[in-house]
Amino acid sequence: MVQVQARASAKPQALAGVRVVDFTWVRAGPWATRWLGALGAEVIKVEWPLVGPGRRGGRAMNSDVDSRNNSGHFDDTNANKLGFTIDVRSTKGMELIRRLISVSDIVIENFSPRVMRSWGLGYEDLCKLRPDIIYISQSGFGHSGRNTEYLTMGHSAQAVSGMTYLSGLPDKPPAGWGWSYLDDTGGMYVALSAITAIYHRNITGHGQHVDQSQMMTGMVLNGPAHLDFSINGRPSYRPGYPPGNRTHWPGTPLVNNYRGRTVAPHNAYRTSPEGYNDWCAIACSTDDEWQRLVGVMGSPAWAIDNKFANLSGRLAHQEELDRGIESWTKTLGKYELMDRCQAVGVRAMPVQSNEDRVENDPQLRHREMYIGVEHPNLGNRKLQNAPFKLSNTPAWNQLPAPLIGQHNREILEGILGMSHDELVAGYEDGTFWPKGVERLPYIEEIIQAGPLQVEEKSMVYPGSSPLRSGNGIDSLSPHGPLSGLRVLELADEKGQWCGKMMGDLGADVIKIEPLGGSSTRSVGPFLDDIPNRERSLSFWHYNTSKRGITINLESEDGRDLFRRLASKADVILESFRPGYLPSLGLGYEDLSRENQGLIMCSLTPFGQTGPWRDYLTSDMLHLAAGGQMASCGYDAADEPDAPPIAAVGGQAWHMGGHYAYIGITAALVNRTVTGKGQYVDASVHEACALTTEGAISNWIDNGKVVQRQTGRHAAITPSAQTQYRCKDGKYVSIRHIGGLSPQQLQTMAKWMEGYGMAGDLLDEKYKDSAIILEDIKHIDEVVIEFIKNNTRDVVYHGFQQLGFSWGAVRTPDEQLDDGHLQDRGFWLEVEHPELGRSFQYPGSAAIWSESPFSISRRAPLIGEHNEEVLCGELGLTRAELSVLTEGGSV
């Protein structure tokens, strides 16, 4: 038996004592529970040797061992868990599962909605086993709504959500994401929901069902595009969109493309020696930054031409601008180019492959992103670590992924109290291992080992957390799970998404802005295309459910006001450059002296330490250095000169915000037990580096660099096309036909025959499974011909109703009239009283049964709540507030 890894630290972990029953499979669900385990939860992965997509996923590392236990990708996705095999279809097996759930805190699954109910384990059934159970489900479309039975994998979820369309060049097929972004990000939403629900239960004593939709997880990340259409009427199908890596595509209307501010240059450029991933991303946000770039390039004659001196000129001559810059970048390696640019204050970062991140990134090395963990079959193997550092309860990889059924003895005897004789009988009758399937050597060792000793149980398995009594908050009232928390947000684009998530889930988030308002208020699109700091639709989206005040932290009076607010706060979220707040006497050590329960999260580009900690970045630059661009783009056959592509929409900031939220809520859970706060050092770069699905495992396991492919997963070898253009010019994302039974093929062919396009698929020969397997290429060709001759929605809905996890490549604005979203109450009317209007906003990817998500208010006007907070809560008089305003402190 493999024992638990020695602790990397003597410190406790935030979720210690929380037990999770993990029914998840493939990627999104297991990726979530992996991080709960890294935070100290006891995660029990329930499997069966005859089923289990994921164990054979990715490339095998060691061909000398059983194929179920030699996948490096599975190891990385399922670290920090215990392995348990049981036949849930048997009466005895289900009885034991029910006993396990009754002594557990959380049940997590990502099956289709009918599976758990068919087992008698729906939420109502779980509550009978443990009244305060937390049940997190994530299916493709959620557990309610007219399309609830539709199936997704990561690729189809992101197609339907609008995410796939955001990445690519104008007038070209969508480039997509190059990996299943919504498997990784869907997993983050499961994890953050689970931790939030544990916090809520620790406060109120109530569990709940959180019903997540994987597809809708992607939709909430398209907010500005949704508002631009619902408010301004601007569609996504338009000239120059999506704009590749640029903020504006030359020769098209000058409108904001949801990449932040409209600037130039903003692109990826070839570098020496012009190999596959020899690219560097450069962005200049101001005229001053452009002049610095001109200087570092050696002030070439073309660059000092007056037509490039201002933004308007650079946008008007962007093609010439980019050619000139690339003529210089080709003379330097991407890391040398980055160093030269950053040394003079120019934003530049290399496009890093999976190899680069593991082998060549000094920042990730300094932050210990890849640390080896001993696996019984794979040896000492690097695993990816958390992109945040908790000062008191660190997250760490405590276990490699379990061998299948590895911990049955500890779970059955140690947790459920089964005798060893009963354990042996369960193996003999097929409850714990299928009859007729060869038992692996360690399974025989379990059977022969004898009874589990008490000291073994207590050393490894701390047991479930006790039921905690609430503090009197009525969880059945319409308050979010973070209700009662006070959060101070001092954040720009890096942190405002994290603050919005906390606010929409019930926290009282006070956004503290400089006197003229946050710089993010100058980011379009704007209401009716009228630029104004109170009309930014981007700011509106990212700052719902917050109150807003203005404080000048450079003044002593301003700092004193902030200290007074901090003394009563639960959480401070800030995104200033490292060291700035401590230089003002407002660092965590300063503020926590007066508030020992304070949790402070610094979300910065690269974290608080390391050689890159002070480097300048942008969303695109993070997608370059984080590995997204190296995986996203086009086949050389489709677009031979295409650059690696960064998707629009602030996705790097989203990734950073998701992990910062997880770090904060984990600290909050720990505080409910210890009463103590802590400091969270979160890094956007590390969050991005962690969010490319199997790319890192491909390098660690096989030493292979993934290649970009049009509209589908990057891979180390070319794979079959999965994105096809339909009759109406729109696209679908498919999984090729395979493994069909004769009955399934007949059902599909009869449906296609209704359109006169079944070909020969109704032939009697296809009632033979062997013939289907032999002719699968031909069957594929018939299906592809059907796709090309029908509209996207006919193909998408038709094949979904046949049980195929295919996705329509939709734009964000195509979703406003989606009946399924209306069934789930996704779209929310948000009132803007100063305008006398209400606007439709995207809501939540999840339905919380006991503590509902809501948008409690629209984004604040500049200083809107100064009097309410500073006078009403800090006790200033209006006269004092007036003096502070006149003095430039408020």
Please provide a written account of the structure.
The chain is an alpha/beta fold and 890 residues long. Among the domains are: 19-220 and 391-460, Crotonobetainyl-coa:carnitine coa-transferase, domain 1 (Rossmann fold); 486-611 and 657-686 and 855-886, Crotonobetainyl-coa:carnitine coa-transferase, domain 1 (Rossmann fold, 3-Layer(aba) Sandwich), CATH 3.40.50; 723-815. It is 36% helix and 13% strand. It is built from 36 helices and 24 strands. It has a seven-stranded mixed β-sheet. The protein has a seven-stranded mixed β-sheet with strand order 12-18-17-16-13-14-15. The protein has a three-stranded antiparallel β-sheet with strand order 7-8-9, sandwiched between helices. Helix 7 packs parallel to helix 27 (651-674) and helix 20 (496-504) packs across helix 27. The radius of gyration is 27 Å and the shape is globular.
Report the top-level CATH class of the domain at 19-220 and 391-460.
Alpha Beta
Give the CATH H-level superfamily of the domain at 19-220 and 391-460: Crotonobetainyl-coa:carnitine coa-transferase, domain 1
Average pLDDT: 94
CATH topology of the domain at 19-220 and 391-460: Rossmann fold
Order of strands across the main sheet:
3-2-1-4-5-6-24
State the shape.
globular
Number of DSSP strand runs: 24
Helix content: 25-40%
Largest sheet: 7 strands, mixed
Distance between the termini: 63 Å
